[in-house]
Write a structure and sequence with these properties.
homodimer, Dimeric_a/b-barrel (chains A, B), Alpha-Beta Plaits, alpha+beta, HS1/DABB1-like (chains A, B), 4 helices, Dabb (chains A, B), about 100 residues
Chain lengths: ~100, ~100
């Protein structure tokens, strides 16, 4: 299994509407990309200081399926339209489990 | 459910032995901390450039159980003895799912 983990921080001037548009767009991806086996995402719960703002954890059967997701046009459109305009920083790891 | 996600980068002078000691120590935590429901971790798979070096994804039934894990003495010892000595940067999010 490949578990893709990515954390984002948003720019200071990102609006609540822009932030809310990210999960609204992401939740459409499992229906669009059948290679996704499990997909969890959301804003930081606010428990600890100094955290990033948003996380995505996506599971795939294998590396090929992850790459299909990574390069998928619908996924790339979400990144271009909703994530990049408010992205301050990004941290990612792919785990081979 | 609370899903705790944390990514690390290691210092340039971290040795292979020091890096290998992190998963070796983490794999003992589920037996020591029964609040852990699922625990996945490991080094970045090397698929993409610019990634962080290591990830942990830990699932808990609720916030209280996550806080028990966060503050657990055995967990804190792993952080102090194995993670902090080679830590360059850390990014974390807790998801409420």
């Amino acid at each position: 299994m490949i578990r893709h983990v990515v954390l984002f921080t948003w720019t200071d001037d990102a609006t609540d509407e822009q932030k809310a548009a990210v999960p609204a767009a992401l939740e459409k991806l499992p229906a669009a990309i059948p290679q996704i086996r499990a997909y969890t995402f959301g804003p930081d719960a606010g428990i600890n200081q100094g955290n990033h703002d948003f996380a995505v954890v996506a599971d795939f059967d294998n590396l090929d399926d992850y790459v299909i997701y990574r390069d998928d046009a619908v996924h790339q459109a979400v990144i271009a339209e909703h994530i990049k305009p408010i992205l301050a920083s990004r941290a990612a790891v792919q785990l081979s489990l």
